[in-house]
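Blinded run. Sample ID left blank on purpose so nobody reads anything into the name before looking at the predicted structure. Input follows.
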Amino acid sequence: MPSDLRYLLQTRDGTDCLRIVYYKETDSTNTEALKLARRGYPHGTLIVADRQLRGRGRRGRHWFSPEGKNIYMSLIFRELERLPCPELITLYSSVCVIEALLSNVKSAAAHIWSKWPNDIYWDDKKLGGILTEGGGLKKERFFVIGIGLNVNSTKEELSKNTDHSGTSLLSETDRTLRRDRLILDIASGILGKSELLGSPLSLKKRWTELSRTPGATVKVIGERESFRAVALGIDERGHLIVRTEEDGKLKTLCAEEVVHLR
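Blinded prediction complete.
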């Protein structure tokens, strides 16, 4: 195991993870987590890989996942009774990710933010994303929360392997960070913030504080249409409310993609 992941094997007070499953290499931590969840692995099981061969993001996009550089993790979450609205799990997870980053990277406070519905940004560049799966079937009473974060990839690596819209903590801070401490802080946050998880109003307030989407002019991309709008904020289910530029109508977005316009 790489030296900056070895801390995962040690006991850590306050971490509710019941089991840590480590892969040197795997297709996707979410794919593995779904398999393990269906085999009965418990709430709090954390799956971590040093490299992904087929890392994936929302809408089937490929996620650049080189060896020994970044965070590729998935968490099995079974306590769905703690969720007054299951659709909030992605926004809740993004809050926990950002708070973990802020506690580890002090200089991030003025730069890091959450873009609806599942992206983590450093200013105008994407730092990471969250892919939540499962939970929709009666036989599958769980969520798998997948998190990918660019931590120690260099600017050169990112420019060669992405569309130049991504960045990493190393690129922005000139610091090499330990991945294991970030992973455990993220996991313990997701598993431990029960008060925030159980209060849609509190979660809405905290997410809004950490986001630049409310108030932004955006392009909304749906399956059947695309249009420009102003994002007004989220409702108690985590859906995004926008006002269209063309006719001023209010629309509520559930699964669409939004692109911030400069």
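Unblinding after everyone has recorded impressions. The helical segments are 29-38, 89-104, 155-161, 169-173, 179-192, 194-197, 200-209.
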